[in-house]
Each structure stands twice: as structure tokens, then as C-alpha cells.
Specification:
The protein has 523 residues and is α+β, with helices and mostly antiparallel strands. It is built from 23 helices and eight strands. The strands form three sheets. Strands 5-6-8-7 form a four-stranded antiparallel β-sheet, with helices on both faces. The chain has a two-stranded antiparallel ribbon with strand order 1-2. The protein has a two-stranded antiparallel sheet with strand order 3-4.
Length: 523
């Protein structure tokens, strides 16, 4: 008898929700680079120091980069409303994304209806009390990213319930996938009537979180940085990050005459505002600069310590693994390939790493460094630090990163040697250990067939997706998953969240592995 599929749990849902944030956030990171380069190279200071840049063609190019870079910042909420149902849907993803836009528009049109009937529109004091702004050309309550997330979740649930809905024959044209945007418009239209009544409570809660963080002073960034690293193995860090970056929890500030909420929103507003002469430490303390001590210095130091602690005969085997991890960390801001090398064998070391990351956030804020954006990598350092001038105090980053390198190296080398931790290269080769399979030519570099077998076969996989570095899946029977075989064939880590939900850490090429597995499962 066929086994029934595993039920979706709150745990799985939160992880899946966090994963959907990556699509708009990835665009946001790239748009931020365009905005940073464009705005810095059109500044008077740069034109005076590099006169060859002060010509019409180049300045128009830089101005164009600045304008295009604003796309993700201006339309970020609607992008979340579209990306969440797109990411959560397992079938008819295009319909889910379309319904996300319909739902977001319907919500704001319905809010506008309520405000108009209540005589709020046109009353300056009342509009200010409700937080009315122009959303997609509609005078509505600015619910920001939180409102978009609510829309996205509702649409995803409606899509899962109704994309196969059968209508009576006379109305069959409106059935199936076509019914999803229809029911979405109706449901979000009703939700829009409720939002003006309940939104003040949501706003008060978020403002309360922001007040706690702001009253924590320099410990606010420390708590954020440490918490974000501790949540990373569970895949829930995206939710905390989104809360600080895009809502009142990350602060509220007046920029160019507009009230802006969220640390990243404030930074981008200041970056695009011609009247702004510098960036707010209160905002950038939660952004890229806080990651730089650990990402540019600490984790490379930990990698060197693991290399030196490896058995001499194994150093050649792990060198490429460690180097690729350092490159991904320093250039791309992707840390999991390094972190998962010691997370499972030495959880205490990972906890120390989380504390040191939090201290990095706190230190950069106390030093008055003002480097924004999202990734904390070398690109952010150059574009949002060096190119923005010495006012960002970018010159302090190499100094602090060098100190963190030495601290990480010393702590990791001592702990590995003293407690005989089995970090890469310290294990003694065993003849009965699973052997890596050959890598198929022209593929992702991973043997999809072996990985699929190690996961228990196609019939064991109920749902499959990926985030930046991990395969995220639900399986029928967790006992059929072979951890050792997965690790022998390229997996950095295997995380069993519960009896059905599984994550396999692959690295930056994870999307290619997922495509391989989907192709094999389809055949």
C-alpha cells in the first residue's frame, strides 16, 4: 500500500517562506551595486578627483545605472508579493506569481476604498495618522514588506487550494488555474477592508521590536548579528534579516523629506538622495559592514587553521575545498561552504563564530563605519566603502578583519588540536567508507544518480527545492537517506530537521544539482 505524503509542518513552511525571500533579495543586492556605483561616480567629489569621468557620456551612463538601480528599492513590496507564491507553489508557478500581483493590487485598492469612504483621503492629518502613501499609484496604507508577505502567503494558500478547482460546465472557462487570480482578487479585497482596522496593532508590535533594539544601543547590532548566524543552520535567518532590513524594527528616519523605515531602505534612500552627505551609522550597523570582520577575516582564518590542523597526507585533498569556500565567502558573501565544515563536528565552535560575528557588527558600529548593502563581501567593501569616500571609514575594515583573522585562527587551531575535533582532513581514511563517484562530464560536477540514490530514490522525495546553497526537501522515509554517501559525493552537510524535512548543503552550484535530480526524477 502506498504511503501517504508527509504533512507540511510550520517548521517546513517557515523555511520555505524564508527561501522565497532570496529572489527579490538577490535582485536587491545587484540593484544596490548599480545604485552604489552610479551614485558615487556622479558625485562632485569623485568628478573633482578624477576629472576624466566628468564628461557627458559617462555621466549619463552613471545616471542611468542609478535610475535602474532603484528598481528593486522602489518596487520591493510588490516583488515580495509575487516571489512568495512563486516560490511556494509546486505547480502552475506562473499563475501563482500573476495572482500575487493581482492580490497585492486588490489589497491596496480595497484599502483605498475604505479610506475614501471613511473620508481619510484628502485629510492631511488623517492620512498621516494612517500612514497613507502612493502604492502602485494608489493612495493606500503603506504596509511595506510585512503587508507584501501577508499577501504572498494568502495567495500561496489560495493557489494550493484552488489551482485544480472544477467549476460547473457552464462556467468551466473560469475553472482550474484561471480561478486562482479570481478568488485572489475577492479574498484580498475583503482583507483590504480589515487592514485599516488591525494595521495599527501590527505597526505597534514592529515598532516595539525596533524600540527594544534601539534601546539596546551598540548591543542591538550584536544581538542581530549573533542571532542571524544562530538561525542560519535552521534556515530561518532570512525572516530576522527581512524584519530588520525592511520594517520599522530596523529603525525609521526622515530622508530627503520622506519617512523611511528599515535599515536597508534607509541606506538606499540616503544613497539615492542628492542632499545626503553621509550614511547613518544607526542603519548601516545592521548591514554589510557588520559581516565584514567575520567574512573577510574571520572565516578565512578558520579555514587556514583547519588546513594546518589536517593530517599532512590529507592537506592536498582538502586544499581545493577550503580555497573554494574562502573564495565564495570573500567574493560572494556565501559562508555556508565553510561554516558547515565545522558546524556538525564542533557546534561549540559555531557558537563562538556566531558570537564573534555579533561582536563584528557591534565593533563596526562603535567605530562609526558606514558601509551598507547586504552581502558583506569584497564587492560591497569596494562599491559601498571605497568608492563612497573616506567618510565611510572603509580603511578600518582591513584592520578589524585582520584582528578577526588572527582571533579565528588562534581559537580554531587551539580547539581543533586540544579537543581532537574531526574537521576536514583529520579523519583517518577507512577502506569501508563510501567512495566518491566519478563526476559526469559537462554536468554540475556532482553525480546526480548517486545523490538521488543516497536520498532514497525518486519515490522517497515528496518535494524538492533549493535556496542559495542547500537542497531543501521533504522525504517519505528519512531512514532511507544515506548521510555518508551524500557527504562522499559532494554534500557539505546533511540536516535532518524532523522525520520528513531534510536539507543537504551543496554549495553555490546547488541549483544545478537540483536540476539534475528533477531531470532524473522525471525519467
Amino acid at each position: 500500500m502506498a504511503k501517504s505524503p508527509a504533512k507540511s509542518t510550520i517548521w517546513e513552511f517557515l523555511q520555505s517562506l524564508g527561501k522565497t525571500f532570496m529572489l527579490p533579495v538577490a535582485l536587491l543586492a545587484f540593484s544596490g551595486i548599480l545604485l552604489g556605483v552610479g551614485s558615487s561616480l556622479t558625485s562632485d567629489a569623485v568628478k573633482q578627483s578624477m576629472p576624466f569621468l566628468d564628461n557627458m557620456v559617462l555621466q549619463l551612463l552613471f545616471l542611468w545605472m542609478t535610475k535602474v538601480g532603484l528598481v528593486a528599492f522602489i518596487y520591493l513590496p510588490v516583488m515580495f508579493a509575487v516571489a512568495i507564491p512563486l516560490g511556494l507553489a509546486r505547480e502552475e508557478k506562473g499563475v501563482a506569481a500573476f495572482a500575487g500581483f493581482v492580490g497585492y493590487a486588490a489589497l491596496n485598492l480595497s484599502i483605498n476604498f475604505y479610506l475614501t469612504v471613511a473620508n481619510v483621503i484628502g485629510d492631511g492629518a488623517a492620512e498621516k495618522a494612517y500612514g497613507v502613501k502612493s502604492i502602485l499609484g494608489i493612495s493606500s496604507i503603506d504596509t511595506g514588506i510585512l503587508g507584501a508577505i501577508i499577501v504572498g502567503v494568502i495567495v500561496a494558500k489560495l493557489h494550493a487550494r484552488f489551482y485544480t478547482y472544477r467549476m460547473p460546465d457552464a462556467l468551466a472557462f473560469f475553472g482550474g488555474a484561471r480561478f486562482v487570480p479570481i478568488i485572489t482578487a475577492l479574498v484580498l479585497g475583503v482583507v483590504g477592508l480589515v487592514v485599516p482596522l488591525v494595521w495599527p496593532w501590527f505597526a505597534a508590535g514592529i515598532n516595539g521590536i525596533g524600540a527594544v533594539i534601539s534601546h539596546a544601543g551598540p548591543f542591538g547590532p550584536f544581538l542581530f548579528g549573533t542571532g542571524e548566524r544562530l538561525l542560519l543552520p535552521l534556515g530561518l535567518h532570512h525572516i530576522l534579516v527581512a524584519l530588520i532590513r525592511f520594517t520599522e524594527a530596523g529603525g525609521t528616519q526622515l530622508v530627503c523629506g520622506n519617512e523611511v523605515s528599515g535599515a536597508l531602505n534607509i541606506f538606499y534612500s540616503e544613497l539615492s538622495c542628492a542632499d545626503t552627505t553621509g550614511f547613518s551609522v544607526s542603519a548601516t550597523s545592521f548591514l554589510s559592514q557588520g559581516k565584514m570582520p567575520a567574512f573577510l577575516g574571520g572565516l578565512p582564518g578558520a579555514a587556514l587553521a583547519m588546513y594546518h590542523c589536517a593530517r599532512p597526507e590529507n592537506r592536498g585533498k582538502i586544499k581545493a575545498l577550503l580555497v573554494s569556500g574562502v573564495v565564495a565567502c570573500v567574493i560572494g558573501g556565501i559562508t555556508e561552504p565553510l561554516e558547515f565544515l565545522f558546524l556538525f563536528v564542533a557546534p561549540v565552535l559555531y557558537f563562538i563564530h556566531a558570537i564573534l560575528t555579533g561582536l563584528g557588527f557591534m565593533t563596526m558600529g562603535l567605530l562609526g563605519v558606514t558601509i551598507g548593502n547586504t552581502d558583506g563581501n569584497l564587492i560591497d567593501f569596494l562599491v559601498f566603502g571605497v568608492l563612497q569616500g573616506t567618510a565611510t571609514k572603509w580603511y578600518l575594515v582591513p584592520v578589524v578583519a585582520g584582528i578577526w583573522f588572527a582571533v579565528y585562527y588562534g581559537v580554531f587551531r587551539f580547539a581543533i588540536a586540544r579537543f581532537n575535533l574531526k574537521t576536514p582532513g583529520r579523519e583517518i581514511e577507512s577502506n569501508d567508507a563510501p567512495q566518491p563517484a566519478g563526476k559526469p562530464a559537462g554536468s554540475s560536477g556532482y553525480n546526480g544518480e548517486i545523490i538521488l540514490n543516497a536520498l532514497g530514490g525518486a519515490d522517497n522525495i515528496l518535494a524538492l527545492d533549493n535556496c542559495i546553497t542547500r537542497l531543501r526537501m521533504s522525504v517519505q522515509d528519512m531512514s532511507r537517506v544515506d548521510d555518508k554517501l551524500l557527504k562522499a559525493n559532494g554534500a557539505i552537510g546533511v540536516i535532518k530537521l524532523d522525520e520528513h524535512n531534510l536539507q543537504v548543503v551543496i554549495g553555490p552550484q546547488v541549483h544545478l544539482v537540483k536540476n539534475q535530480l528533477q531531470s532524473l526524477m522525471g525519467t
